[in-house]
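Checklist before submission:
- one chain only
- standard amino acids only
- sequence pasted in full

Submission:
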Amino acid sequence: MAPTIVTTRKRKRREPILPYLLILPTFIFVAMFTAWPTLLALYQSFFRQRLNIARFREPTFIGLGNYTALFSDDRFLLVLKNTLIYVVVTAPISIILGFLFAVLINRTIKGIGLARLAFFQPTILPMVSAATIWMFFFTPDYGLWNTFLQYLGYNGPQNWTGNPDLALIAIMIVAIWKNAGYYMIFYLAGMQSLPTDVYEAAVLDGANAWQMMWYITLPLLRRTTLFVSTIAFIGAFQLVDHIFVLTKGGPSRASTVLLYYLWQMRFENQDVGKAAALTIILIIFLLLFTVTNFALSERKEDAYA
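Returned file contents:
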């Protein structure tokens, strides 16, 4: 009897170690590739260091000098404005289109699989390939986009990627086209897991399709919307591949966003200090949005409860 009691006690002592062992790989990964780079960027943001200038090659402590220089620079303020416009436009429109696409294809009719594939197909393409396709669409003289607009009554070719007033719109169109099908998948999965008895009761009560979507589908999918909106807004801050192909941030920085400007500052200008400061600013934007999004969602959850 005594050995059994001792063995049981040893087993109880060893059991609390197992959860820590399970999360250890994730902890190491996050520490190496998230926490440490963030702390290093924060440290470097307080120093002036230009690798392409001999007298500034060694890091020199300047405190908040990099942040002050950035926010007093009209170019950075323009980049910040472009970034906010890009995020505020592309993320909500992509989410709304993804939801509408999911509503359209959440049916059991013949050929619906081809429709789902058609909506999802842009997501499969790499962003560089998608941007290359749209480069042909945006060609001023014979591009399909200008041809389509001419049918709608707009005369004269437009240089979408070379016009400062249209360049940012062009990269937003590509991002929306690329991402809407991706968000559609999450909404489609959520819709297919919703209880059918709720809709049957709504039909018996005389509710139409719009009322069921607004009062039943959207409230039941609020958790899905929280997840989709989080990855959509974070992805909008991080998406720059098509800018390299279509506009390279031009003309006159009209299509330069924060992450692309960070790349220019670090690898073209080789300004380590300002690039680190831009990294911290980008992280702060992402944290502010994520915390705000979750706070608003929890408030809505309490309201529904």
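Reviewer check: Residues 198 and 294 are 27 Å apart (CA to CA).
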